[in-house]
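In the design runs reported in the main text, the only information available to the sequence generator was the tokenized backbone. The following block is the verbatim input for one such run; it is reproduced so that readers can re-run the procedure and compare outputs position by position.
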């Protein structure tokens, strides 16, 4: 029985929203053979159904983090690619929602919220993943605009995005204080998808090259030099939603396992009768509930107006992704040979969860973030 929607973290409209997303997820069918086409179709369908309205905050609006988290949880429970396509519309426009001008919001958010433009978040570089302040891609002032030079890698939606939020060094100061955030479209001269990348749970992914890409003053998001804080603020919001996606994967693994252990007979009785199996089930259910509590605590805190939820978001992401990996691993084990059969649900979950412990801040980065906050 699913009772977490009754928790005081949610308002009535959140419960209706979860049902609305669930209704969409029940109907959607995803072709994993061609991930580019699948993501385009998913964005289109989600835009049409109105689900993407929560992924951006227009002028005078706030992102509702609980709505983002609920959508990711529900979508991930049904299909990882559906969750991915939804999430990227939010992450790719997060800087605009939080720091964009009225004009930037008006230019992009109606499009991304209707599913007519696909968004991407380009922070990671070949030489700097966890250490954002070490990024070397440059943006050099040229007249009233900038010229971008360098590479970004592991960029989700790379190759299919219509809008890239790109972080580059403008050099106001060394390290974290010398980065800025820009909006780049793939038709800009000098922009190139240098390499498409294949991952164990495939989705559109690429290395991008910026070879003298010129952008105008309207491309700068927030103040120049504020890029690091913009990236971190966007990640504060979206790390909570990664936790929610992990929660959705874990819920699916648990429900698949319950079905399995109640129906699979060993020595004349269902697996569920064995205490050793019950121990696994108990730990899995505990990890799912604890993940949900941490995830929605972080989302609720942000929605209540907390200026930063760095500690809460890092805790939610670290715990939920690690717990989901454990829940899914146990699900594979309790499915026996069927657990590793290619194309099976738990085998798919086993591949899908792995990257969540790495992207948007690897688990050990979350530990660094939490320790910094706790130590003050
Ligand atoms: N919100 C707002 N400001 C923040 C912030 C946040 N969440 N986190 C840090 N800042 C500010 C700090 O307050 C500090 O400001 P001042 O210079 O005014 O004091 C500045 O940013 C630098 O912060 P810090 O010293 O903590 O930076 P570090 O270089 O030590 O960075 C980590 C720390 C590791 C936390 C950061 O690089 C990080 O999150 N890395 C992971 C990146 C990631 O998620 N990559 C995935 C990309 S998307 S797939």
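Verbatim output:
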């Amino acid at each position: 029985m699913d009772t977490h929607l009754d928790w005081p973290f949610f308002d009535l409209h959140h419960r209706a929203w979860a049902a609305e997303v669930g209704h969409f997820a029940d109907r959607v069918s995803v072709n994993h053979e061609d991930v580019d086409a699948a993501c385009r179709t998913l964005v289109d369908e989600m835009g049409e159904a109105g689900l993407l309205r929560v992924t951006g905050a227009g002028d005078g609006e706030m992102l509702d983090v609980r709505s983002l988290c609920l959508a990711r949880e529900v979508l991930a429970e049904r299909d990882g690619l559906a969750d991915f396509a939804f999430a990227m519309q939010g992450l790719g426009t997060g800087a605009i929602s939080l720091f964009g001008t009225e004009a930037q919001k008006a230019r992009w958010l109606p499009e991304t919220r209707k599913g007519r433009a696909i968004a991407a978040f380009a922070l990671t570089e070949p030489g700097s993943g966890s250490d954002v302040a070490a990024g070397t891609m440059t943006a050099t002032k040229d007249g009233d605009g900038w010229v971008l030079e360098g590479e970004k890698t592991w960029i989700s939606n790379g190759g299919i995005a219509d809008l890239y939020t790109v972080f580059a060094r403008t050099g106001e100061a060394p390290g974290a204080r010398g980065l800025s955030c820009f909006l780049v479209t793939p038709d800009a001269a000098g922009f190139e998808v240098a390499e498409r990348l294949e991952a164990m749970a495939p989705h559109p992914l690429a290395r991008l090259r910026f070879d003298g890409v010129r952008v105008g003053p309207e491309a700068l998001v927030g103040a120049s030099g504020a890029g690091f804080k913009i990236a971190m603020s966007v990640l504060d919001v979206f790390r909570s939603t990664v936790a929610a996606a992990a929660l959705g994967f874990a819920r699916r693994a648990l429900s698949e396992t319950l079905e399995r252990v109640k129906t699979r007979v060993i020595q004349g009785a269902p697996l569920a009768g064995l205490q050793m199996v019950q121990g696994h089930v108990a730990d899995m259910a505990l990890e799912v509930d604890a993940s949900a509590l941490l995830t929605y605590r972080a989302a609720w805190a942000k929605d209540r107006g907390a200026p930063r939820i760095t500690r809460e978001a890092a805790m939610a992401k670290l715990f939920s992704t690690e717990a989901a990996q454990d829940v899914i691993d146990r699900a594979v084990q309790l499915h026996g040979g069927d657990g590793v059969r290619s194309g099976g649900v738990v085998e798919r979950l086993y591949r899908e969860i792995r990257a969540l412990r790495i992207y948007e801040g690897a688990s050990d980065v979350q530990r660094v973030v939490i320790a910094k906050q706790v130590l003050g």
